[in-house]
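Re: your question from the hallway

Yes, I did run it. Sequences:
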Amino acid sequence: MGKKKSALLLVLYTLLIALLCFICTVSFNYGTDGLYRFSSILEITQKDADLGGVSGANEAYLGGGYSAVYYPEGVISAKEYENDLAGISDEADRAEYENRYRAYADGTLYLEVDVACDEDGTVLESFSAAFDVAVETISARYEGMHVDGARVSVRDGYTIEVFLPEMMDSEYYTVSNFALTGELSMTFGTSEDEATEVFRVRRGETIADYVSSVSAQSSGGTHYVAIRFTDDGTSAISSATSGASSDTTNYLYIYVGDTAVISLTVSEALTNSVLYVSGSYTAESARTTALLLDSAISGSESDLSFTAEDAYQIPASYGSDALMWLYISFAIAFVAMMVFFFVRYGLLAFTHLYTYLLFTACTILCVWAIPFLYLSTEVYIAFLITSLLLSASNAMTFEAARREYALGKTFASSVKTGYKKSLWKIFDVHIVVALFGFIMYFIALPGLQAAAFVLGLTAVFSGLGALLFNRFAWAIMAALSKKQGAFCKFKREEAEDE
Amino acid sequence: MNKRSRLFPVWIALSAVIIIAGIVLFALFGFNTAMDRTESKTVDVSYNVVVELSEENKQFLQDTSEAAFSANGISYDEKLELEGQADPSGSSQSSFYPNGNVFTVRYIFDGSVSSEALSASVADIEEAVDAATFADGAEIYVSSHTLALEGQSEALWRAAVGVAVGAVVALIYIGIRFGVGCALTGLAAAVNDILLTLAFFAITRVPVYAFAPWLYAAIAAVASLAFWLVRCMKLRENAKDPALSALSAEEAVGEVCKTTDKTVFALSGIALVILAVCAACMSVGGAAVLFAGALVPVAAAAYSSMLLAPALHVRVKSAFDKQKAKRARYHSKKRAVRGE
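Structure:
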């Protein structure tokens, strides 16, 4: 390669890497009084519930999550009890209100007499059993969301605290919908008041005899909820909607307990065994709705109803400085790596630096751009593993070329032979790591899933970096040097005089 | 190599003892998932901000609370400042938004902290709040809660299956590229490293997040595969060398170890140092524990790759070589018979 061509390519390559590094890592305020902010890719990348930080001009918090408490019917917080009591001025009403509730769990909760407890304040067995069923149902819904960090806790014995990470698109929708309990039902008519039951569930039957399952699906970027009917369900809905036409506006209402979750305009009879409900669903909201409806198939009229209250934004669980220290740990590892390469290989370390920066920038861009990826410590560990892989691969190639050069080969021939000898070794190790990562991604659930995908993806980047981009950088950099051996700190083996 | 190979029963016994003890303790107690706070208690000090509290008053609330905890002989694990959000009661909204009124300072305690001490602390805080003068309309509310986390099993068993299937498929590739013998030794080493890692956490009862053992198992599998691949590559390279191809199994593996020990040692050393740096940087808290725990799988992989796997491969290779020689003898006999 000619020197001019190499110089031009080097300038272009340097500019590309500088631009990528700038976009990925540098954030700053600009405009009058720093009104606007340029946010780096790293700053706007989603963080999991364990990591978090302030992002953007409006100082929005990325990371952490939201919690809320589900209060079952017949259970109120001590705060609500005291507020209600303070609002009652009439002594008789006050006494009546006081008589309606009994303190529970050191006065943290108040249970309604005959709904949740008896006159002595002992929790009713029926209430306790219904609460256990509700905990199981709600836990299964949150687990079914397959969201990293989602958790459900029983608080004070008879309320449920739920938590979802901030990185979700519709955590509010999920928390509010998953509070709904009761049996799945459908009505059809010209208005909600006029609508009549679609499935006339007979004695000994349940809604499961009419609706077999509900799932979320997507096709061509559209997300929808698929409701599958049994044969009886198909004929029932077909018969109920037989009068539907485009001349009159008819609605199909889908209920969970007493709440209409979906209302559909129906202009023709629904005769298929699967009803696809689309609309403005995102992947998350479709999954939430499907999980809610599916769990409501096994719901019953006696299920407890819940009210979601006491919502809070919860900061990152690793603490407010964790993200900064994560970056500092990376900086230390990066500096140590580069010191090793510069000491051992001289200016050749620049080729590794360019490859490594390109690898890092591509990883950051992918973690930001791929919807199911986010920044977490697990993802960072996966990135560290492949960083080590890339560094070891480059070092192995440099060493192979160094050995060839020492034997007396020309510089070009040494590099060529070095790569030839290392090619399959680098290929094998990268393929093995990528295979492991991608297979784990398909089986595991978040957050190992995200880390596994990043492991597989960065193994591919590392392989390409070591075999392609590093060689390219080496070629254009070495071409500019007069003493190519010295550029790489390569030395000839000294021949011993006999 | 001779020494390493001779001590093979010792390596096997060492691994077996640790793994069996780990399995027994796991069956009895499981992992110590205290980092997930399966049982915890909280004290919430909430105040409305319709009437803005001065910074001094906010600080007073925190000082009063912390003094009450000290007076009752309890200490909190974590303090969070929480911003109240609108109650999630509508379905038209997708994301939470601040209600702008309620702020809470939440103190999180271990589940073993006495409820009586907590109640006494709440009473002390309430008493101090009642005695203090705040802005008109300011409402301060103190409450304590007990939380019990519900377990999520699907994520854990799927992670375990993911690690196992990922490792097996990667080893099938190794089998295709380097031979069944290498794959079998690699499989044994990977399984050993995964189980050793899990056993370590089951035996020591070091507090971990529920997902962490499976993350460590994945790291053990990747490290084990990578270290074993270094040996496999050299084995194949030597097999092509006429001067080395005639060596016995023990000599061949010894030769490979001599030339690759440094690489494996350097790789595992660097990985350990990087993880130690990360753990040190995170200083305290969950992330530091997570990184520190990751030292175990790398150390386990280094152990098996330096000691167990080469010693095992001497036996595996020797068995495969014998089979190969037998097959070669059979074929040459057959050819000789045909020639007659």
